[in-house]
């Protein structure tokens, strides 16, 4: 297991500006953590740092005592804009299964699981936004991740697609996959979160259980955000 | 002029055996050189596209500069190596189709390498974060890039073939324009024009144009199909 996660004094600097400024938090071995906050607060950057795609300027991230780059293969990251290969839906899954040495017989089951079994032979890049994101999720799940990192996977999707993706994520979580989910959607966070990490201007404004966050937020920024006021 | 065109068309339509021999040799030499140039140029283009190493910019400058190699210079260099007193003279390849293939390969391999580098680098910019997330090896990344860029690389190959089949400087130096042995369309056109036999020269010119149009039409058709499937 690569959990628990310990983040200490995490700093990410671009030039002279600290875009993440001294973040410290711990995440346990199960559940769904929602990372929320206004645009530019550093949510997506934090996700990439946790996944080992970026190197922090200071502080440390430890997944069960190991650096992110040592455990990238045991996580999967779904990007806000899915990057699909220029091949069929099925070939996108085949590629990951082959690259990661997984059983290729699982492909059809994975596609059925995300509701794309009937589109297996279609070009992946002609899928709708919701379908493309479901394919990206299937590809992520094909790697059997211990941790699923999701960067606004339902942004700009219609309600039916949101429900479908939330169902797939909830199912993964029920099977023991640790979920870390970036979202702007307060309703989605209410439906799925066990705890909420609220960022503002590169700092943690609040990290509390979901019930506490939504009923009695501690920080003014979170209160304003939940009340629909503009938070920068 | 009108009479020459009429004679040329008669030669083409009658399937003149001498004409056919020249055309087939041209195609054999240039297609073989294109395949060899792709085998050399694509791996080089791939490695430079995804590699980051000291002196990369210098390599890019050299690669781009080599695209403009004058055919007569390539012909001269190959001649010097293959002539009896040259280091490879013992092979006895001078004035053979093999020598022409070598010269054309050297001429177009830099074109394939430089153009494929640009295609693959653009695609890699789109895929690189996803590839890092999937923990692909460099070989797996190159394989995926080459496959996903296949239709664009087809155009690169076509550019190489076009350059090969139309050049005259290199093949006339290393091939010698020997009748029934190393005479190809471009060298025959040069010879027949100097002799004043415009009909044969025009006939070969017509065939050269038809080949160029045919190959371009075929590639364009493949690319249009690929574009419809969002594979480009």
UniProtKB/TrEMBL annotation, chain A:
Residue span, ABC transporter domain: 5-226
Record-linked InterPro entries: AAA+_ATPase, ABC_transporter-like_ATP-bd, ABC_transporter-like_CS, P-loop_NTPase
A Pfam family annotated for this UniProt entry: ABC_tran
Keywords tagged on the record: ATP-binding, Nucleotide-binding, Transport
Transmembrane regions: none
A single MF term (Gene Ontology): ATP binding
SMART domains for this protein: AAA (SM00382)
Protein name, UniProt field: Tungstate transport system ATP-binding protein
TrEMBL record, chain B:
Entry membrane topology: Multi-pass membrane protein
Membrane spanning stretches: 31-51, 58-82, 94-115, 153-178, 198-219
Keyword Nuclease: no
Family (UniProt): Belongs to the binding-protein-dependent transport system permease family.
A Gene Ontology biological process term: transmembrane transport
SUPFAM superfamilies: MetI-like
Family annotation (Gene3D superfamilies): MetI-like (1.10.3720.10)
Family annotation (InterPro entries): ABC_perm_TupB-like, MetI-like, MetI-like_sf
Localization per Swiss-Prot or TrEMBL: Cell membrane
Name of the protein described by the UniProt record: Tungstate transport system permease protein
GO CC field: plasma membrane
Domain ABC transmembrane type-1: 23-219
PROSITE patterns registered for this protein in UniProt: ABC_TM1 (PS50928)
Keywords, comma-separated and alphabetical: Membrane, Transmembrane, Transmembrane helix, Transport
Organism for this UniProt entry: Citreimonas salinaria
Domain of life: Bacteria
């Amino acid at each position: 297991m690569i959990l628990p996660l310990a983040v200490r004094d995490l700093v990410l600097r671009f030039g002279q500006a600290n875009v993440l400024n001294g973040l410290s938090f711990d995440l346990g071995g199960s559940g769904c953590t929602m990372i929320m906050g206004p645009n530019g607060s550093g949510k997506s950057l934090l996700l990439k740092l946790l996944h080992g795609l970026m190197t922090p300027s200071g502080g440390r991230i430890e997944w069960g005592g190991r650096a992110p780059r040592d455990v990238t293969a045991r996580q999967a990251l779904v990007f806000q804009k899915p990057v699909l290969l220029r091949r069929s839906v099925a070939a996108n899954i085949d590629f990951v299964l082959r690259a990661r040495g997984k059983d290729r017989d699982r492909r059809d089951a994975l596609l059925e699981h995300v509701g794309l079994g009937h589109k297996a032979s279609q070009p992946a890049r002609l899928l709708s936004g919701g379908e493309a994101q479901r394919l990206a999720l299937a590809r992520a799940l094909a790697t059997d991740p211990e941790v699923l990192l999701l960067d606004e996977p339902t942004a700009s999707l219609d309600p039916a697609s949101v429900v479908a993706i939330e169902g797939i994520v909830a199912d993964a979580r029920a099977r023991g996959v640790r979920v870390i989910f970036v979202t702007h959607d307060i309703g989605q966070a209410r439906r799925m979160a066990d705890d909420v990490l609220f960022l503002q201007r590169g700092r943690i404004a609040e990290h509390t259980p979901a019930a506490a966050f939504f009923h009695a937020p501690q920080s003014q920024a979170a209160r304003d955000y939940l009340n629909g006021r503009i938070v920068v | 002029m009108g009479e020459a065109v009429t004679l040329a068309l008669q030669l083409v339509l009658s399937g003149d055996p001498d004409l056919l021999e020249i055309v087939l040799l041209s195609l054999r030499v240039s297609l073989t050189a294109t395949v060899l140039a792709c085998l050399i140029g694509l791996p080089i283009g791939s490695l430079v596209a995804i590699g980051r190493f000291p002196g990369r910019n210098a390599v890019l400058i050299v690669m781009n500069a080599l695209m403009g190699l004058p055919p007569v210079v390539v012909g001269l260099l190959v001649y010097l190596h293959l002539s009896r007193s040259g280091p490879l003279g013992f092979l006895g390849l001078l004035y053979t189709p093999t020598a022409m293939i070598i010269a054309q390969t050297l001429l177009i391999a830099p074109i394939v390498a430089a153009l494929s580098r640009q295609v693959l680098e653009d695609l890699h910019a789109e895929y690189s974060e996803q590839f890092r997330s999937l923990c692909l090896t460099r070989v797996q990344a190159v394989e995926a890039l080459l496959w996903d860029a296949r239709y664009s690389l087809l155009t690169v190959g076509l550019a190489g073939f076009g350059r090969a089949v139309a050049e005259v400087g290199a093949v006339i130096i290393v091939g010698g324009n020997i009748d029934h042995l190393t005479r190809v369309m471009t060298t025959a056109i040069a010879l027949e024009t100097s002799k004043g036999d415009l009909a044969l020269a025009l006939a070969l010119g017509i065939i050269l144009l038809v080949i160029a149009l045919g190959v371009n039409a075929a590639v364009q058709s493949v690319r249009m199909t690929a574009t419809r499937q969002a594979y480009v």
